[in-house]
Write a structure and sequence with these properties.
Helices cover 75% and strands 2% of the residues. With 165 residues, it is mostly helical. The termini are far apart.
Amino acid sequence: MIILPESSVASWWNGRFASFALKQRMCVAFAYAIVQGASGMNAVLFYAPTVFEQIGMSVEDTFMQTVILGLVAVLFTLVAIRFVEKWGRRRLTLLGLLFISIAHTSTWYGFKSAHYELSQEAIENIQQSQVDVTLLQPLVGKTYASDVDLKRELAGIYSKKICRW
């Protein structure tokens, strides 16, 4: 392994990227990489089956929705490849950043303003599934700031019942 003095590394870097135009292109390339990672698309695809299942879809439907989501992503990638030169990279990049900002803002607002409440109607629906709902009666009308709080309380109630068994 060759250890170079620090000054030679700096001179190599400055020599390779001496022109302003090249430095500007490198900054744009780094920005693309960072923004792509920050867009959250990988997280969306990873958690899509869980989210679809939590909103009430069957397991089969959740995976079908995930496949459809992936196919739509591939389709629009092909559209982008086809038209990127015609529509302009700068315009498409700025438009994409706008949509990413809107998506992140709406997601933030949705989670910030969400509340969870167990209603009497929900208890009746659960009761139709042959589940003992007597332990849930104290929770009717109580509002939770997050689904985690609600699930934690439900787990506490039902785990105590199982432990007493």
